[in-house]
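# step 3/5: fold
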Amino acid sequence: MPPISPVKDAATGKTVKSATLTPLRTMSLEEVYKLITSNERLATLTLAVRDAALRGDENACRRLKQQTLPYVTPCGVFTRRRSDCLMEPSGLVVVDIDHLESAEEAENLKQQLFVDSYLSPTLVFVSPTGRGVKAFVPYASGQTASEGIGWAMSYVHCMYDADYRQPGKGVDTSGKDPVRACFLCHDPGALLRINE
């Protein structure tokens, strides 16, 4: 699996390089999985974000997420975080489902997405707030990352969130840009599909 690019320090969560500058390094999907499932510092940072979300303090939640959590660009490796600077596509896109009713609903959706043989995500984990899910989904060869994002978002919307009529609930369609950052958080139950 080709690597993807973090732009924040995984250990501290601090920005190492501006998001528009050269990323810190590349990581394999397996390294991202290990970070999500077993990094104690990330567990502490995630707890702070989730506490703010549980209190209903959206500003603190957003600030903590943006200032402390590491993130990656799942669509590939970029020399700079700009769409014209893609060095190596990963063949993956991220689908982000937000504002679910509960942590239990997020856990259930995580399982449903992972076993969906048509979607076949390589990594699925509960999002930083605890009430959303992020899925790294492979797209068909011959498609661009933008086409893959459109396909994956449409599929998940049709299959999993057609019941969400309230604005902001369900698939986050703002993530259509291939350079979009995907914040990582602790999820010891994250699901990884190894080359099948």
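# step 4/5: annotate
Residues 1-5 have pLDDT under 50 and may be disordered.
# step 5/5: archive (pending)
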